[in-house]
Design goal:
With about 260 residues, this protein is α+β, with helices and mostly antiparallel strands. Helices cover about 30% and strands about 30% of the residues.
């Protein structure tokens, strides 16, 4: 099934046109959706439903179709829509397959770079057919991917407390604008740490499996696995020691989810 999903995802990228797409707001200038998002999502849902009849869907663009099914596709048609709308390369298609509460398959495709990341549970992680693994860099030599929480700007001060405590202890910061790619970049050994104060399941479902299969780790507040029914803070790292150190800083400043 993995190769079939990869083929479907690659074909769906054909709807990410270079120009001529429409842009709509979903509540403000910082939260937009394009006609390409809808086109990619429609194609993915149609083809994946054929591939796995009776499966459910959780999608960014307001499609919750039978999300309580045992097998559920978790889809972000374009993660990094703001980047996409401005011609910035850091955007991708993210597709995961959830069985119960576990992700068993994940595919993340960045068309502009022709980078196809994928994993199946227990079978390792790959980039364009080659195995990938996290780096061995320690906390002090880490690249830390983060953001201020664009959709919850009232939480920017909390995010900044975390950032300003982590930053002096690491190599440098990065802000790419696509959480799915953030997790894949850690999986590929390009970066080592990630924290965002608010992510949704479609942002991290596929990337979380890819990173876990590459030897890294992902968690929510208190070290538990992020769930699939609401937005929440998410942390990731290339190893358990680095994640524990990051988690201790985050939990100190953000002991509970600071939004509904």
């Amino acid at each position: 099934m993995l190769q079939q999903v990869i083929s479907i995802v690659r074909k769906s990228a054909g709807f990410m046109v270079a120009d001529g797409f429409r842009i709509e707001q979903k509540g403000g200038l910082e939260n937009i959706v394009t006609s390409s998002d809808y086109a990619v999502q429609h194609f993915l849902c149609k083809e994946l439903a054929k591939l796995l009849p009776g499966s459910g869907f959780i999608c960014e663009e307001e499609d919750y179709l039978d999300p309580d099914k045992e097998m559920v596709w978790v889809i972000d048609p374009i993660d990094g829509t703001c980047n996409y709308a401005r011609g910035i390369d850091d955007c991708c298609i993210s597709v995961a397959l959830k069985k119960g509460n576990e992700i068993i398959l994940g595919v993340v495709f960045c068309p502009s770079r022709n980078e196809m990341y994928y994993a199946e549970a227990g079978k390792g992680a790959f980039l364009n057919g080659k195995p990938i693994h996290v780096s061995t860099r320690p906390f002090a030599d880490a690249l830390f991917i983060t953001a201020l929480g664009v959709y919850v700007k009232q939480c920017a001060a909390l995010s900044n407390k975390v950032i300003m405590e982590v930053y002096p202890q690491v190599n440098d910061l990065r802000r790419f604008g696509s959480a799915a790619l953030d997790l894949c970049y850690i999986a590929a050994g390009r970066c080592e740490l990630m924290f965002e104060i608010r992510l949704c399941p479609w942002d991290y479902a596929a990337g979380m499996l890819i990173l876990n299969e590459a030897g890294g780790c992902v968690c929510g507040l208190g070290g538990r696995q992020p769930g699939f029914d609401r937005p929440e803070p998410v942390m990731a790292a290339n190893n358990r020691d680095n994640l524990a150190r990051l988690m201790s800083i985050v939990d100190k400043h953000i002991p509970s989810i600071p939004y509904m």
